């Protein structure tokens, strides 16, 4: 039996081991997508596989960040944010291991990205999710102020994709 909340730490990935553990989580995410939807994430998102091979280059510099949640030494969740030239930021790559779900990890990860994007001067944060299998995540995003939008921010074309956004700052 476990507590409802998980005592975890969330930190911006910086060390090579942070990026290795985040890559393992994102491979788990890809496997989960395959099993839950029948979709091939590396086909639907052609840049995803290359991104996994270069996580530190993708998220270790200006304009992008990757956060990892740890329970002790075990990485249990990840989330990324990428700033776009239009002043918006994209929430990407959120995944929490099943053992840590429902225990506050996703809430803390989302708050980390909201804060990072706002601190970077972004005016809006947006994301893409998939109705059906990701309905619990969509409800989580809604609790954090995200609302469905049809402004064409995203690039995914799979049936059931929903684009959500929330304002930042003032």
Could you walk me through the main structural features you see in this protein, from its secondary elements to its overall organization?
The chain is of the alpha+beta class and 170 residues long. The protein has a domain at 9-122: Aminopeptidase (3-Layer(aba) Sandwich), CATH 3.40.630.30. It is built from six helices and seven strands; from the N terminus they run βααααβββαβαββ. The protein has helices spanning 16-37, 41-44, 48-53, 55-59, 105-119, 135-143; strands at 9-12, 64-71, 74-83, 88-96, 124-130, 147-149, 161-167. The protein has a seven-stranded mixed β-sheet with strand order 1-2-3-4-5-7-6, with helices on both faces. The longest helix has 22 residues, at 16-37. It is globular. The termini are far apart. The mean pLDDT is 88.
Q: What is shown here, in short?
A:
The protein is α+β, with helices and mostly antiparallel strands.
Q: Give the strand tally.
A: 7
CATH homologous superfamily heading of the domain at 9-122: Gcn5-related N-acetyltransferase (GNAT)
- CATH architecture verdict of the domain at 9-122: 3-Layer(aba) Sandwich
Give the ordered list of helices and strands. EHHHHEEEHEHEE
Assign an overall shape. Answer: globular
- Amino-to-carboxy terminus distance: 42 Å
- Rg, Cα atoms, Å: 15 Å
Strands in their spatial order, largest beta sheet: 1-2-3-4-5-7-6
By CATH reckoning, the class of the domain at 9-122 would read: Alpha Beta
CATH fold field value of the domain at 9-122: Aminopeptidase
Largest sheet: 7 strands, mixed
Helix residue percentage: 25-40%
Instruction: Assign the structural class, choosing from mainly alpha, mainly beta, alpha/beta, alpha+beta, or little secondary structure.
Output: alpha+beta
* Beta-strand residue percentage: 25-35%
Counting DSSP H or I runs of 4 or more residues, the number of helices is: 6
Low-confidence stretches: none
